[in-house]
Structures are given as C-alpha cells and as structure tokens.
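User: My instructor asked us to take a sequence, write out its structure as tokens, and then describe one feature of it. I'm not sure where to start. Here is the sequence I was given:
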Amino acid sequence: MSANFEAKKVVVQEITDKIKASKSVVFVDYNKLTVKEVSELRSKCKKAGCEYKVYKNTLVRKALNDLGYHDFDADLNGPTGVTFGSDETNAAKVMLGAVKDYEGKVELKSAFVDNAYVDKAGVKALASMPSREELVAKMLGSMQAPLSNFAGVLNNLVAGIVRVLGAIAEQKG
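Assistant: Let's start with the prediction itself. The structure tokens for your sequence are:
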C-alpha cells in the first residue's frame, strides 16, 4: 500500500473520531472566502466552542459512510467546510452568523445532529434554538424566582415589625 493511501486512512479516522465526539457537525460551502476571512471564521468557531476544518469531500464521505450515513453524499460536492460543534446548536449558530457576515461567500449545506441528517432549513432552525446552557440558566432562574420572592416578603415583614416597634418606642419615650 502506498504512503498516500495510509495518510488518507489516518485522515478518515480523524474525521470519524471528530464526528463521534461532536454533538453536531455542520457542512457549509465556503467558495469565495479569503484567507483572512477563513482565519476570522476559525477564531469565531473557537470562541463558540467548535472547530472549523476543511477536508477533501471524498474523505468526509468515506468517514460518514463508514459510520453508516449515506444522506450526505449529495452535499459533499464543491468546496466544503466542516464545523464540529460541542453542543447541538453552537456550530449552527456560528455558521448562520457566517452566512450573514460573509454575504454570498458562505452557504449552508446540511448538518449531522443526533445521528441524523439535517437539511439547510433544519440548520437554520437549530441556530435559532437556545443552547443547553441558556436553557439550564432559564430553568434555574424560574426555580429561583419563588425563593427570592419569599425572601423579599420575609424581609418586608421583619422591616415592618421593626418600624412598628420603633414607633411604639417613640410614643413611650
């Protein structure tokens, strides 16, 4: 076997491992981006907790096919950027932002979320959903609100008693 074939096998294994480790994978067409814009995009991805890579379509297709997913074959044509997300929504949010920021230079193709194919409309819907952290924060906020309200009522009750006792002390003094 040639060294080139072995190198490709290593890259396919790397892609497979990244797909397995990611909660979401978003595919985009990045046809007209400059090197500077690609660097900016990588930086935005890193800040959001995801990773943007460019691989040969045949290697990505091979990795997905090895995992048993064949729905992506039509999307893996032309220049394809792959974004591996650490949660279900962050990669979609960053890539939808890139579509808006680099108008006409980046186009959504599809995504792989929860072991399923997600089309372009689904990626847009994913990007509009709150992240897991945002949902947890909202839930904790709703659970905490009754407790803070109760604490406020108790505080006002104690303050009222102190005011009444102060007024009684002034009348007698």
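For the description part of your assignment, you could build on this observation: The CA atoms of residues 28 and 109 lie 5 Å apart. Try explaining in your own words what that tells you about the chain.
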